[in-house]
Specification:
Layout: H1 2-9, E1 14-15, H2 20-28, H3 41-57, E2 62-63, H4 71-83, E3 92-94, H5 97-116, H6 123-138, E4 147-149, H7 155-166, H8 177-190
Parallel strand pairs: 1-2, 3-4
Helix pairs in contact: 1-7, 3-4, 5-6
């Protein structure tokens, strides 16, 4: 959510979510062949091509929120974009295991809403829980050195920290706590994945 907060407060910026090009190949495959779309070379190449186009053709900041824990995938995406001459800032947002589990449960509320509508599946959260320890271990490796701990801070404050480290000057955060929570809930609901 810090990516959405930065986008909201940084005029001229755009959000390019690398998860979106992963959904197509994932849905194209028969259920028995579906795995992590990040493991598809086509996804990694497509992310570099699309983000490269956005970085070249857009005058503002391009924000790409994505959790990548495989160092080879980082090399094929983040490092490749840098090799192509793009100024890429890569931040790893971390939290203690208990905090991540709590956040996944909160995110699960959106899936309950979707289930009430007859469309959502909780598999995504259960897969995230199964991979949690592996992900936390991987994200402690050197290639993920620009780490920001988010356990005891708010989304707006995390966005401010990223902006300072990236040399950006977003608009100040002037919303009240309730309005911020409602907006963040709206972002979460808009990102419910069906099917």
């Amino acid at each position: 959510m810090p990516a959405h907060e930065i986008r909201r407060r940084l005029p001229g910026s755009v959000l390019c979510d690398p998860e979106h090009p992963g959904f197509g190949p994932h849905r194209m495959l028969p259920p028995g062949l579906r795995g992590g779309f990040q493991d598809l070379r086509a996804w990694r190449q497509g992310v570099v091509e699309v983000l490269g186009l956005a970085l070249t053709g857009h005058d503002g900041v391009v924000i790409a929120p994505m959790t990548v824990t495989d160092s080879g995938h980082v090399a094929e995406t983040v490092d490749r974009l840098r090799e192509l001459g793009h100024d890429v800032r890569h931040f790893t947002l971390l939290a203690e295991r208990a905090t991540v589990l709590r956040r996944l449960r909160e995110r699960g509320f959106g899936h309950l809403l979707g289930a009430a509508l007859g469309n959502a599946s909780p598999r995504r959260e259960s897969r995230a829980v199964q991979r949690l320890d592996h992900c936390l271990e991987r994200l402690s490796e050197p290639e993920f050195a620009e780490r920001l701990w988010t356990d005891h801070t708010t989304v707006p404050k995390t966005a401010d920290r990223i902006a300072v480290l990236a040399g950006l000057k977003p608009l100040p955060h002037h919303e009240g706590r309730l309005r911020t929570r409602l907006r963040q809930a709206g972002v979460g609901i808009r990102h419910i994945r069906f099917g």
